[in-house]
Design a protein that fits this description.
The structure is a single chain. By secondary structure, this protein is α+β, with helices and mostly antiparallel strands. The chain is 39% helix and 21% strand. The protein contains eleven helices and 15 strands. The strands form four sheets. The protein has a five-stranded mixed beta sheet with strand order 13-12-11-14-15, with helices on one face. A four-stranded mixed beta sheet has the order 4-1-7-8. Strand 12, helix 9 and strand 13 (338-340) form a beta-alpha-beta unit. It is globular.
């Protein structure tokens, strides 16, 4: 499974609404004409300016206002509205997602060199978001423990003996995690916060579950723009749903020739896609800052280890901007295949070339350079490779 289909999809759907409350204090918040966003940063190089952006009706980010810091603090006032997804954008591709609607919101302890890099508070929707984030942090910690076990075994030359068993444990961990997430989302309704959680699911594997939620949102939140975007997305899937393995997806179409490009490795060597012609290549778009990419990496590692001696390789293309974090992620996630990046983030030359609307994203390319599959996740990746590498 995959935790959310694409970053662009996640950003488009990350919109929240406040739950109905009966107390006088909550009613007073509902009646506020203005709300305040307060920000306090700890990281020194972030203490000049930032930008506040909002998702519009088309799911695109639009500029709202500049944010200027004084003594490490900033405050901005907005008109109260139906809750929607915003983000505060700093330099170097760093941003903070948040929900703002009818309650004041606070961002504190902002420091992207630490984990967690920030703290959100101020509304029920933020609390729900924090709850989902905590669940994913628990999963990440357990996944890191499995990765550490594998790395230690690899150093001893015993990785082959435990690979299959570790993969079984990891798959069970994923399934348990998703069931916990679904239970959490059921309990959070009728908050639009659930859209964030739903966007972390796989639109193929969890299609029926997500369609059921779309129906519930139609009746419980008919006036929510965020809910309407999610409903529209699911309607589009339903129109093209001739089978759950044939769902429409972003990017280039299967069957076309993969466009050639050349990007530098960490050592500065230019590597082109065409230089790998004659092999089956998984073109894997990812980034160190992309949580779902990092969570998917163990699956790619397992596939690479299983098929690397069968005319198969992986070419990792990073949309990072920070070289140090990119290299650290390569090492930590044990990505032994060729890695390239121009470190231009979403301005990378490959983004429009491959119509990348979000990551993680991958294309499986045959020895003649033709795309034969895309967006292969989890077990689907190894199943497809077993099929073509007979």
């Amino acid at each position: 499974m995959t935790y959310y289909r694409t970053i662009a999809y996640l950003i488009t759907l990350w919109a929240f609404s406040t739950s109905a409350c009966n107390s006088n204090a909550d009613q007073q918040k509902e009646n506020q004409e203005e709300i305040t966003l307060s920000i306090e940063v700890e990281q020194e190089d972030l203490q000049s300016t930032a930008a506040l952006e909002r998702v519009n009706e088309e799911g695109k980010f639009i500029f709202v206002d500049s944010i200027t810091f004084k003594d490490q603090k900033a405050e901005i006032t907005l008109e109260a509205q139906e809750p929607e997804f915003f983000r505060v954008v700093f330099g170097e591709g760093m941003y903070i997602p948040l929900i703002m609607g009818k309650e004041d919101v606070q961002i504190s302890e902002v420091n992207f060199t630490q984990n967690p890099p920030f703290k959100l508070s101020g509304s029920k929707d933020i609390e729900n978001y924090n709850q989902i984030s905590a669940l994913f942090e628990q999963f990440n910690q357990k996944a890191d423990q499995l990765q550490a076990i594998y790395s230690e075994a690899e150093e001893r030359g015993e990785a082959a003996q435990i690979k299959d068993s570790l993969n079984t444990v990891f798959q069970a961990l994923q399934e348990e995690h998703i069931e916990k997430l679904k239970t959490m989302l059921d309990e959070m309704m009728p908050s639009v916060t659930v859209i964030y959680g739903l966007s972390l699911l796989d639109a193929q594997q969890d299609y029926d579950y997500m369609q059921d939620f779309a129906k519930r949102l139609k009746t419980t939140m008919p006036n929510s723009v965020a809910a309407q975007r999610f409903i529209k997305y699911m309607d589009q899937l339903a129109q093209g749903n001739t089978g759950k393995q044939e769902m429409p997806s972003f990017g280039l179409e299967v069957g076309v020739q993969a466009p050639d490009f050349s990007l530098p490795t960490p050592a500065g060597k230019q590597v082109s896609l065409s230089s790998l012609k004659g092999q089956y290549v998984l073109l894997d778009f990812w980034a160190a800052w992309c949580g779902p990419c990092r969570q998917e990496n163990p699956n790619v590692v397992a596939a690479y280890e299983r098929f690397k001696e069968q005319n198969f390789t992986v070419l990792g293309v990073s949309l990072d901007k920070n070289r140090e974090k990119w290299l650290k992620a390569i090492e930590k996630d044990n990505l032994q295949w060729t890695q390239v990046s121009d470190l231009q983030y979403w301005e990378s030359s490959v983004v429009p070339l491959y119509k990348i609307e979000g990551i993680p994203m991958n294309y499986l390319i045959d020895p003649e350079g033709k795309i034969i599959a895309k967006n292969l996740r989890g077990e689907a990746l190894q199943e497809k490779l077993a099929e073509v590498l007979k």
